Amino acid sequence: SAGAVAGGRGGWYALQAAHEATAGIDAYRGTRNADPDRDGYRNSSLTVQGGYRFDERWDGDLRVFQAEGENEYDGGPASESGFTERVVGARLRYAPGTRATFTLSAGTSADLSENYFDGVFNSRFDTRRALGGLQADLGLGSGLLTLGFDWQRDEVESSEDYARDRRINRGLFGQWQQDFGAQSLQASVRRDDDGQFGGETTGSVLWGWDFARALRLTASYGTGFKAPTFNELYYPGYGNPDLGPETSRSVELGLRGEPAWGEWSLNAFQTRIDDMIAYDADFGPFGGPNNIDRARIRGLEAVVDTVVAGWDLRGSATWLDPENDADSAGKVLPRRARQSARIDLDRRFGAFSGGASLTAAGERYDNLANTRRMGGYGLFDLRVGYALAEAWELRLSVDNVFDKSYETAMFYNQPGRTWLLGLRWHPAR
């Protein structure tokens, strides 16, 4: 990959080009649609973005992204798909004073794919999205009021016919933020009108309290609404056209500290979900998305960030209880580990830098019935760097150093030991 950033006289631009190609690994080790070969991947992308400040009140920016590539997979002999992704986004901002800002945004995206079996065209599946929005941020007293409207249109074109091939979602939202001495309050509400799944009102409340020096307590409650994507509904061989939207209710309690030696946080949370959209290994011939009537996810997350003997240390650990409350009552939700942790250790030695990461995850299940168990795993990564000159740095990273075999989805292999050598140029501005 290569990139460049430049600017001056109120304007700026950035270019980023990247290409990635690999012969891959044998992606699937199961007997269904077995194809014991290496499944390669190729992706070339270009990003162009820039912005300009017209005067003290007006500024805008534009971003264009395109990627093209091919992906081989074990859906049959020599199976592969070709894909193109395009994203265009623009934003115009007007700030008539220090207490008000108005932002107009618009964009489009496209995800185009063609599937081949034995080198012969099999199917086409294209999704396109257009969106826009207007947001006003208004300072009122010591608070901030945000009001807005957004609009989104999704379309699907395919070699197959569907009962519905487009939909529009319109949303209205508002948010209030206010500080009261050592306490703060944030409240928001949103109304969505989905052309396929109807209307839904959601909202959230967040409270924070700096009750002691370098200590902050937070609590929140919120509701959510998620409509299935066209890929989840209709993608050939995978989609489920009977999917419905999911709704959720979440609570969270957190404690954060910033002592002299670093930072730490502890968060407890619980989410209850109706009609949860999740992968079901027993749905259809290849598995696919399905609705789970009722689910509950509760957990605890701890994070610490500090310096030990000159080493930057960051550690995190998560304990989850992701439970299916419906037909498979008491069963763990598929493909979710109940315990996970990560430790990152980094240090610079003059022109040299080095670091290591340790990632661990507990067992998980591939299906709702919890009859397909996948064991836990631990991964060890290493990285080194050397500053060749003021603007040049040589980097080498090795992931999965001990070539651990593991799965996060049953029968699908994960990469073994991999290494990446890179040269970075970052000239002084």
UniProtKB/TrEMBL annotation:
It is found in: Cell outer membrane. Gene3D superfamilies: TonB-dependent receptor, beta-barrel domain. The keyword Chloroplast does not apply. GO terms for biological process: cobalamin transport. InterPro entries: Beta-barrel_TonB, Beta-barrel_TonB_sf, TonB-dep_rcpt-like. The keyword Transcription does not apply. Residues 23-401 form the TonB-dependent receptor-like beta-barrel domain. Keywords: Cell outer membrane, Membrane, Receptor, Signal, TonB box, Transmembrane, Transmembrane beta strand, Transport. It is a multi-pass membrane protein. GO terms for cellular component: cell outer membrane. PANTHER family: COLICIN I RECEPTOR-RELATED, TONB-DEPENDENT OUTER MEMBRANE RECEPTOR. Belongs to the TonB-dependent receptor family. This is TonB-dependent receptor. It comes from Marilutibacter aestuarii.
